[in-house]
Amino acid sequence: MFFGDSQDPDLEPAEEEDDQNRYNSPQSCSHGHRSSLCLHTQEGGTICLLCFSNLISDPLSPTVHVSYALSQLSQALAQPPFLRTFLTFHSHFIVSPFVAALCCFDDEPIARQLTDLVRQLCDFSAADGDGSLSEDFIARVSDRLSSGALAWSRRQVYMLHCYGMLLNYRTKNLHDLIKKNDGLLSNLVAGLELPSEEIRGEILFVLYKLSTSTEIDVLSEFCPKLVYLSLEALMKTQNDDVRLNCVALLTVLAQRGFLGNEHAKYLKFNEKDQGEPPLNTLFAEAIKGPLLSSDREVQLSTLELIIRYLSSQVASIKEIQLLVEENIVDYVFEIVRFSEGKDPLAKVCVQALDLLSRAEQPFNQRLAVGFATLIPVLRHVAEVPFHPVHNQTLTLIWKCISRCPGVVSASHIEELVLILTSMLLRNVNGEMGLLPDTFATTCSILVTVMKSPSHRVPHLARSVREVLEHLVSFCLSTFEAQPTQLLHSLYLLKEFYVYSHDNSFIDDPTTKDLQNCVLEKSSNDLELSSCQSAILLLLYTSSLHDDRLADEKMVLASLEQYILVSNSGLLCGYPDPFTVTQLVNIYGFCRFVADTSCQISYSPEAERIVFQLVTESEWDLHSSRIHWSSLKWLFKQERIRNPLCYQVLKICQLLGANGTATATIHNQFIGAREIAKLVAEGENYAAILLIRLLEQLVEEGVEHEISSVVNFLSTIVNIFPSSADQLRVHGIGNAIKLLYYDTNNSYSKQTFKAVLLLVFSILRSSHSGILSDDEAWLAVTVKLVDCLSPIDIADRWTPENLLVLAILSLILHHSTNGGLIEASKSVLFHTPVASAIKSVLHEACSKGPALIDDHEGTNMGKTVILVLFLVYFSMRSLQAVLPEVVNWQNNLGQSNGTPLSSIGITCHDLCRLLHFGSASVKLVASYCLLELFTRLSEQRTSKQEELRCTTNYLMSVIATLEGLVVYGDHRVATNCSLCLSMVLGWKQMNMQEARVIVKNKWCRIIVEEWAASISLPSLAPNAIIGHKPAIYVTAAFLKLQKDFVWMRSIFDKACISSIIQNVTTSNLSPEMVSFFRELLNSEFLQADQIASLNSVLQACRKQMYYENDGGAQTEEEIGNLFANVDDLGDVCKYLLHLIMQSGSHENKGLLNEIELFFRALAVKDHN
């Protein structure tokens, strides 16, 4: 098989007759296949279809060759003469090889190419009026899928996807093309039991297409097993595409009555466990996920499925009641709320709710809760003439008002009345008619409103009167056409007459009665006392749910009077804790509103009584349900700081040693999350209370309570990392210092570890600007480094010692951003710690190949990793704090060099760790070496000094780095590539180093492999990203291409053009742009290549300007990712996260690199 070069220039167009002769000219391929199977392309190449078929259907064929062959065929099909010849004589020849290729290769790019080619060919064939090609494909794939020898695997996903695409070309009598219908369906149903979500999604779509292609129930013999498997798949998946396919299939099954309760039949035929849930229960659980989906189409399809299911004969009242009790109604109301009452979601939601309302008793309870969402729906449907769910919406509203009197708020009733009267007026004026049922329901709602306890609605009487003035006469004129409308209008007139003569609605005594009742002194009047308790409960409950029963000014005035009148009863004896909770919540809520508005005065005496109740009663904050506004107001009151301290201590004691609650706590009660939120928000005494509480406990020496408070502080910092800044501002450092320097008490190991965890959490979550250099943190740091002084053997390091290393790393990290400078200096130049670090590194390096056994799961491995973290942050801190005293050449460790006087590591030790260490050790060591080389390069550039090391030393470093450029961990490979590129840059200052590199051929192999891999034709878009590490070495060689002439032989015109063709706006990276810039500077790029690059870069820049930034993670989100600081593994992950965020080699960003490329291009054009 021979393929013409796609890079050849286009030939001049010839006459049509000559073209046709050239395409049909007989010529055999190199394998001697007959000439009729050899088709010519415009470029002068030849495609032998037999060679092509053998290649793509052979599972041993290299995937690169198969991909290339498919791309060449795709290009050839774009040429009309080739396409005409191919479709006329050979289209069916490649059907079998294509199907075989789909089964042979577990390669997504190849499967995508095959599917696109099949779609392309079927489209061409269908355009010519011939559908036989798609039918042939369907028959062949069906044979494969119906085979008894079919073994499900990942590669079947691609065949299923292609099969589903093919089924779109034939919508009727599909089963005539399938030889083994039963075998196909049996295999597909069996495939639904596989754990692969991707396979299940494709199978569900295929089954849906097969079931809709014929009126015959081909799936009936596989039910109810198919129903159960489909529902299980729907319940388990989180993929909206799978959900859509599953719901579509279930809708077809529901239309044909297969969603009945056939649990017993399912057990009989499939021998399932007797504990298998009934179908209706499984159905209710399965549809919850799709109803919560963010995909509107999934929600719409699921609601239509519910309607089909409830409309079928098998759905009895029992099944409907089960759906209601499984809270499906709440899910539907939530969709209505988000749809804002607009179609098409609102329409199907109302239809579903109307069917669910047949289960009256459980439905009514949920209807009352979701009533508010129906008002926007009614507002919408009232504007659309004869809307299909107009009457159903009104019916739901009528059911709520009539069956749940008094539940609907006055504001909703008022809006409802305005909409209904407007509907009737437009009906009278002829603007928009109403169906008889809709008219009757409208009148019934107005009558029910006037009869209900919520009838005291402003303007109700006036609105109804305006309508009735015209409605009765209109109904008289249309009596012959609509006789029932007159009866309903007269009934409305009668009820309005009764309503208008009832004077109770004129003077609303509710608020006045409430105030008078509260103001009265109950003394021994049990009835009045009960009434007051009921009113307090009503106000308390309404405040918890933000339901405003009355103006806060009036409520506060009445409550203060009640407190003053009942002073003796409240303060004498033992007041009920629940009554105290009610008073504190209502009073705090009203005072919070008062402080916010700055307009409501208050009684100082009533406030004093409330504070006295909080102080002296048995009230418990933790077990109380208090509104968030009330809680914030309480923690702003300085006069009750002591009782609040006591309450917080009780909450701390409820937490176990690990900082989690020992008992189940209701999420509406006050716990760690609420206190953490108070601390994080600031502007209250929460942080001060916690710190003063800890200081007081340290003075008293109560260890178990100290441990509880310390654990609680760690918990709230982990919940809200921003609370660390508030704790730091209010002096948490002083409290920790008191604890460490407490000479009167000796604390256990558990308490010491708890304090370490707190220190780590605070340093992890605080901003460096907040962490100023105060004496407290310096003293804490000195105490911490003293813990490490006596340790000289790695195996003696305890988890507490390792956590101290992590804390010291964080202190050094903050110094790079201007915080904790003095504390960092005390760490950097602490000789015993530096000696202990040196001892650990020496022991690790001396192990040689045995070091790989010390992975992160061993104590030695953890110690080495955390020591390397400390070394890394020490290098960064030294550069930030004392840049003038650092000589980075000392880290080369030569015999004539100066020994390290601070925490550090030599270059050759890092190379040993990189070569012999475990994966985690290699990773951290690579970052350390990158930091060292970066600082060394900066020093040599600024001071113009030569590298003080021998040639052999440099060769050993280069050998280590070259071997790791192709390491499996992308991060290690990238760091080593960057280091190697820096060594190449040093050549410009020392020619001896250049000779060392020139003699080594490994770098050339790296560059050649990288160039070959990214210049492949039709390369997958994401493939370029996987070759990122070697690009740094390549760019470095381009800078020195005059010394390495072989670079031009690698990056010739064809190679560069292929690379540019593979670059798109989606896979363009800063490194690739930098590579192209070096090509430009080295004069490797030609004019047409520059033009192509310019187009891609302009498009990429435009796309980035218009796209919304996804947004970086906030510090709170990042902190929560590493909340479990008790696990050293998570501690290491967080330190690694810091390195990756603030490493010495930071990408300049894609936009910046593009700008540098255009500047270099401008300079080139100018010259």
UniProtKB/TrEMBL annotation:
Start-end of Acidic residues biased regions: 7-19
SUPFAM superfamilies from the UniProt entry: ARM repeat
Coiled-coil parts of chain: none
Residue segments, region Disordered: 1-29
Signal sequence interval, chain numbering: none
Database matches in PANTHER family: PROTEIN PRD1 (PTHR36379), PUTATIVE RECOMBINATION INITIATION DEFECT 1-RELATED (PTHR36379:SF1)
Name recorded for this polypeptide: Protein PRD1 isoform X3
Organism: Momordica charantia (Bitter gourd)
Gene: LOC111018566
